[in-house]
Amino acid sequence: MAFRVHTDRLRKGMVIKNDVYSRTGAVLIPVNTPVTKEVLALLTRHFIDYVMVDYQSTASSPADIPSPESVPKIRQKQEEEFLEGGSYGKHSIMGYNLLKDKNIDLKVKQAILTHHERQDGSGFPLKVKTGNINHISRIIAIADTYDTLTMTEPGIKPKSPFWILKHLEDTGYHKYDSNMLMTFISHLTNNFIRHNVRLSNDVIGQIVLINKFNLTRPLVQIGNSFIDLAVRNDLVIKELLD
Q1: Among residues 140, 150, 160, 196, which is most buried (max CB within 10 A)?
Q2: Residues 6+ apart with CB under 8 A from 79
Q3: Rounded to whole angstroms, what are the CA distances from 37 to 34, 59, 238?
Q4: pLDDT per residue over 83-127, tens digit each?
Q5: How large is the greatest C-alpha to C-alpha distance in the chain, in angstroms?
Q6: 153, 144 in Cβ contact below 8 A?
Q7: 187-226: buried (b, 16+ CB within 10 Å) or exposed (e) per residue?
Q8: What values do phi and psi take at 240, rounded to 5?
């Protein structure tokens, strides 16, 4: 019999009883996969909160699932492992080891190993800095971070892409290649021209111009009038509507 279990309460001896999909529709974990630290890390990284599980014959009974009181400690430990490049950093090493002897461009192998490294040395698993992170890794690092920030949890409204890009703009220049980050933000914001948006005052308008000096604060048309968000600091884009 399968049970719906929160990922914080998964334990050794459980088996995933349904295919688990990423936000893009790719299979993250196939059915009948035993629960391991690596499986838990993958679920947490992709913000998967619940899965269907069954028990192996050697597993404990459902009554032995950790109590809710233990969940905060488990979550805190998971976050610490992630920040320190613990079990969430293993996929980089495992991927590299799988391909290191294959006839694949060395730069691609390096990118697999170092795409979670950061310019300031705060990444993982190697904690290397700028000179040891190749260009492919630097590109993937930015795209992967944006992709992670756009993921949503059930019941929680997603952040506006402009909020996310502003966050990257404010916090990312010491972590990522600044030229690549600026290029990424520039290209992405320009793709939003002619998209309808909802502002923080709940007025709906259309993006008509991206300010090259303030990429995340575009010009928005509302009927026959315009709001320049580069000037109106009291307003932000709350939601991208299409």
Answers
A1: 160
A2: none
A3: 10, 16, 37
A4: 444 557 677 888 888 888 889 898 898 898 889 899 998 888 888
A5: 70
A6: no
A7: ebbeebeeeebebeeeeebbbeebeeeebbbbbbeeeeee
A8: -90, 120
